[in-house]
Amino acid sequence: MTTSSARRPETLLLMSRRSRETQFGPAEMARLHAAAGLGEPLAAEDLGSDRVLARLAETEVLITSWGCPVLDGPVLRAAPRLRAVLHAAGSVRGHVPAAAFDRGLLVTTAADANAEPVAQYTLAAVLWAFKKVPFLAADARRFREDWTYRDGRGELSGRDRTVVVVGFSRIGRRVTRLLHTLGLARVLVVDPVADPAEIAAAGAEPALLEEALPRADVLSLHAPELPATRHMIGAAELAALPPGAVLVNTARGSLIDHTALEAACVEGLHAVLDVTDPEPLPATSPLYDLPNVVLTPHIAGSLGSETRTMTAAVLAELERYAAGLPPLSPVTAQSLATQA
Length: 340
Hints:
It is built from 14 helices and 13 strands. It is α/β, with parallel strands linked by helices and 340 residues long. Helix 8 links the parallel strand 6 and strand 7.
């Protein structure tokens, strides 16, 4: 989008220094300068100095990311000209309170861009889970030249498998479509608020959790972190999984009762966990030592150069705002109630 004829709203970057340095390289900064009015300071990590507060008082648009402070009442009162908060990351839940929506601020998110690497990680985890690749790799270090261990992890096949996707979210939808495109598995989607027609259009079947779990070769979690979803997977749900099933969690650790999870994994449940509760797990957790458990340090989402895809999304929102066009990915108080 050309910005030559559009106005250039006064804009402040509010995020950690690390986020700014990672997400805004020379190309992103050039695009930002073309789209926005930028005073001094151009960016801030917090609002603790008179200089930053003076800049905030002039600001119409905040571009936020990881490390942004909470935009609470005092912050909003110090920003009388503020009209938009454009988030160059995923969830805004941690820094945009209800008061921002009450004031009528435009809030957007780059969660769609962040969903792509998470879906790709999940797809890789699911495909490897079919043949128990990471678990057999752990077994190889123990058994070495004795390949009889290959028969100890259940069926090793990528054909005629069933993947249960819990949460038809931005990421859950992408995972469902990717699996459908590959044609390697039937997909059951558990989401009580999703439109069954949309699930079917993505190549999957809507299902209830209790009927889907016993059919799951892989259970992949993509639900938001809400009071209603806390510990939605507990001892009964884990016990309902068939022998050899693999649990994949790239959503939030709180979706699973970790006391029940530890017990199930000690008994042999396979799990790929990019998120845990808490993060990181205590050093005493038995999950660290189990060959049937893969732990990664919350890496599925955008990292490094991947984060600049989110920057591109937020700069597109800025350009649209400056041109008087509607946002691409708005967040409302109502939608935030059901989003991560």
